[in-house]
Amino acid sequence: MTANTPQSRKQKGRLFQQQIAKAILDFFPELTENDVKSTSMSKSGSDLELSEKALRMLNIEPECKFQEKLNVHDAMKQVIDRLNKKKPKQFKNVDTMVKTILKIPVLFFKKSYSEPYVCIRLDDFLSLLRSNYEQTKDFIR
């Protein structure tokens, strides 16, 4: 789907947000449509509205981008800046907060005729690997 008008670009983005919300709901049957919702395109903030239950389960700050040419660094900065604005005052920065409450900035992205991808920071990825290892290490040996 090539979007040539602002309206068609918003439609493309909205459909992608809905696709990501559905993928999360399909993967986590414990969640309902009330727990993960695509937000309106005019709403500032996160592209997915997560309930308290979904936030506790997923620990992410999601951003969705359906663009043919995407600057991943700028898109990740957008998510991190949003987290910095949301962070409670007792945390100096997002890194301190992430280590404390594990809210990971996540960028879902794709372009036309491509599958979706996910981008997270290296430290967050390594933490996920460590967590997975800790949960499965007894089965590996």
Topology:
Elements: H1 6-27, E1 36-38, E2 48-50, H2 52-58, E3 60-66, H3 72-86, H4 94-101, E4 104-110, E5 117-119, H5 122-140
Parallel strand pairs: 3-4
Antiparallel strand pairs: 1-2, 4-5
What does this structure look like?
The structure is a single chain. By secondary structure, this protein is an alpha+beta fold. The protein has one domain (about 5-140). The protein has 5 helices and 5 strands. The protein has helices at about 5-25, 50-60, 70-85, 95-100, 120-140, and strands at about 35-40, 50, 60-65, 105-110, 115-120. Strand 4 (about 105-110) and strand 5 (about 115-120) form a beta hairpin.
List its traits.
alpha+beta; two-stranded antiparallel sheet; 16% strand; 141 residues; 5 helices; three-stranded mixed sheet
What does this entry show, briefly?
The protein has 141 residues and is α+β, with helices and mostly antiparallel strands. Helices cover 50% and strands 16% of the residues. The protein has one domain.
